[in-house]
Specification:
globular, single chain, alpha+beta, Beta-Lactamase
Length: about 170
């Protein structure tokens, strides 16, 4: 079932000891979600299981961030990222996500595992304007070339700072 959710300015702030956990198959279909995920998303377990993980994607998130996430985990590498998610009620919640590929005994990817926790407020203040500019670039340039232009913008920032994406995310 497809849900139409209108974003609001209502922020749900994670508690310090909360961990949102989910698992998906290789196509991003949710196969497991813990009670904290259910709580913050506002969906029931039945609504989440079997649904694309992007059910919680907030429209303020640039597509380039998710492209980078998927590209990294498809290479069997873990990635950390700050992500703004949207609840069923239109509210939002920021997370600091760690995403890894789940492998079978032969080393083949059989799904993905993500653990999210409360992000530092200072990190959100760093990410938010970068994401806003990336999203603006994506909208200005258009679907075909927007993701590349948005990614190039982020990579340019990292290059000027002489830092990798991973070190940047872990340092803020």
């Amino acid at each position: 079932m497809k849900y139409t959710v209108t974003p609001t300015h209502n922020e749900h702030i994670m508690r310090e000891d909360d961990f949102i956990v989910s698992k998906t198959d290789t196509k991003g279909i949710i196969t497991y979600c813990n009670r904290i995920f259910i709580e913050y998303s506002g969906y029931t377990e039945e609504e989440l299981l079997g649904t694309q993980h992007n059910i919680i994607r907030h429209p303020d998130m640039p597509r380039a961030v998710f492209h980078m996430l998927w590209s990294t985990i498809a290479e069997k590498k873990e990635i950390f990222a700050y992500v703004k998610n949207m609840s069923k009620d239109g509210g939002f919640y920021w997370v600091f996500a760690n995403i890894t590929a789940s492998l079978d005994q032969a080393g083949n990817i059989i799904g993905y595992y993500s653990v999210r926790r409360k992000p530092k407020t200072s990190a959100i203040h760093v990410c938010e304007p970068v994401y806003k500019e990336m999203l603006s670039i994506e909208r200005q340039v258009g679907t075909k070339d927007g993701m590349k232009a948005s990614t190039d913008y982020l990579l340019n920032i990292l290059s000027k700072e002489k830092i990798s994406y991973e070190k940047f995310v872990l340092s803020i």
